[in-house]
Amino acid sequence: MSAVGEAGGAAAAIDLHVDVDTAEGRRVGLERALRAAIRGGRLAPGAPLPSTRGLAADLGFARGTVTAAYDQLVAEGFLITRRGAGTRVADMPGPAVPAAAHGGPETAPPRFDLRPGLPDVSAFPTAAWLRSTRRVLTTAAPLAVHGVGDPQGRLELRTALAEHLGRTRGVLTTPDRIVITSGFYQSIGLLAGVLAEAGVRVVGMEDPGHNVYRDVIRRAGPAVVPLPVDAEGARFERLADPALGAVVLTPAHQYPTGVPLRPGRRHRVCAWARASGALIVEDDYDGEFRYDRQPVGALQGMAPEHVAYCGSVSKTLGPGLRLAWLALPAHLVEPVVRAKHRADWHPRGWASWCWRIC
Question: What does pTM read for this prediction?
Answer without folding.
Answer: 0.70
